[in-house]
Amino acid sequence: MQMKLFHKTRATLAFWYAGVMGLIMSLCGFAVYEVIIQAYLVSINRELESVTGTLHNVIEATLKKPGRTEPVFQLVLPNICQASSGCPTQKIFSHNQLAHSEHGIVDVLYKDKQYYIRFVDSSGRLIAVAGFQPNELPPLVQTTQVWQTVKDSQSNRYSQMSLPLHTQDNQLWGYIQVGRSLKELDNRLAALKLVLALGLPITVLLVGGSSWWLAGLAMRPIDKSYKQMQQFTSDASHELRTPLAAINATVETVLDLEHLPEQEARDILVSIKRQNHRLVELVADLLLLSRLDQRTLATQWLPCCLNVLINDLIEEYSALASAASLQLTSSVLCHQPLYVMGDEDQLLRLLSNLIANAIQYTPTGGYVTVILKRSNGDAVIEIEDTGIGIAPNEQNQIFDRFYRVHSDRSRSTGGSGLGLALAQAIVQAHKGSIQVQSQLGKGSTFIVRLPLTDTPSSDFPRS
Ligand code: ADP
To answer: Which of 281, 317, 357, 411 to mutate to test ligand 1, by most ligand atoms within 8 A of the CB atom?
Structure first.
């Protein structure tokens, strides 16, 4: 079920990512395509405009009678052909066939055989043609429109510019139309279209593949935390079920009895109370952990004196330590009292969990020492024991919720495996850190670092 959800979410993420990327890339491709077309057209039309303008100016200055060609036509355009003499529909003039024009326009006009020049009279009748002649242009070529894109019979496109020509006495002579082939542009655009059409799906496929991989990476912590949640729920239920089952069994046994002596009843109630106490503690720990997780604890942070806290705890645990035949001592390696900002109850809980563990996991005759010192703006508290130690592979797991190194052994001592998880959550809430150094059979040291605060003035509360 969980794997199915994981795969489904991963696929959805990958799909959306690839879709959005595909859309963005298509838009970019389209924009690039448009920019390239515009850039080409602008440069083509600029050249066309300059050629047409020059021809127009050179020829117009000599025109005498509307519709009649002058010798300058032949001079400027050596291959000009009068329409009345029946010009071929397609005629390509090679450059070396041409005499050099004194106006120097011919070089541009015939260079790549891309230009055609047409002269039409005011009624649109063809007078003369020059340059490269396309295959049958549309018969009625608009003369009044300056810029046009026209197509020949083979669908080749031409950009055409038309300018009116006037005689010296300012009569309308006719029009000069200069067209430039757009074949090169069309070929390049077709190639670009092909690249985009093939490139885009391939890129989207690649993006799809990588987004599947990325989605997997992104989902990994979610998957991990989901599994942790499941594990946590199952561990918590298990821990709660044990005392509940014990209480249930005790109550059922008592109910089966016909007669219950008072002393026995008291013993049973004490046992139920003990199980109940364990339940209450467990639920309180779980609640504290969840509140620390969600940062919903409404606590007021005050400066807390670590020297005082440690002294109180040493006093509190000395009886337990001597009952276990251990030496519990503290060692303060700084001259000034050390203060941290925090919640006193939580800090007490943190240190008491570590001290209780040290006592619990240290055999008779051992030592437990609590060291307080200052290091780089932090207060450092080390809880050192000469106990059983923790194997290196267990050291980073002991802070996990409900984790116990040997669950059976720990269970016999009543530990639920929440002590270090709580300690870590409290340290994190106080912006500090906790780490363990340990050697199997030799002992462990838990090192807590908490950021120091300035020593408070005397009007602050005691700790
Ligand atoms: P528990 O309630 O079982 O003590 P904790 O979260 O406090 O749970 O500790 C997790 C595990 O870490 C314990 O089961 C124990 O095996 C190991 N542990 C914690 N403190 C010490 C220590 N000082 N020495 C050796 N092992 C320790």
So the answer is: 357
Atom of ligand 1 nearest to the CA of 422: 6
Q: How far is CA 293 from CA 57, 238, 347, 449, in A?
A: 85, 21, 16, 19
| Nearest-atom index, ligand 1, CA of 404 | 14
Q: Model confidence over 202-241: pLDDT tens digits? A: 988 898 899 899 888 988 888 888 888 888 888 889 888 9
Dihedral of CA atoms 425, 429, 435, 440 in degrees, nearest 10, equals -20
**Tens digits of per-residue pLDDT, 314-372?**
999 999 999 999 999 999 988 889 999 999 999 999 999 999 999 999 999 999 999 99
Digit-coded pLDDT (tens) for 88-124: 654 444 444 444 444 455 666 766 668 888 898 888 8
Hey, which of 285, 404, 436 would you mutate to test ligand 1's pocket, going by the most ligand atoms within 8 Å of its Cβ?
A: 404
pLDDT at 399: 94
Instruction: Locate CATH 3.30.565.10 in the chain.
Output: 302-459
Residue bearing the CA closest to ligand 1, atom 21? 357
Which residue has the CA at smallest separation from atom 13 of ligand 1? Answer: 404
Whole-number Å distance, alpha carbon 405 to ligand 1 midpoint, is 7
Rounded Cα distance, 411 and 431, in Å: 31
The domain defined by 302-459 folds into: Heat Shock Protein 90 (3.30.565)
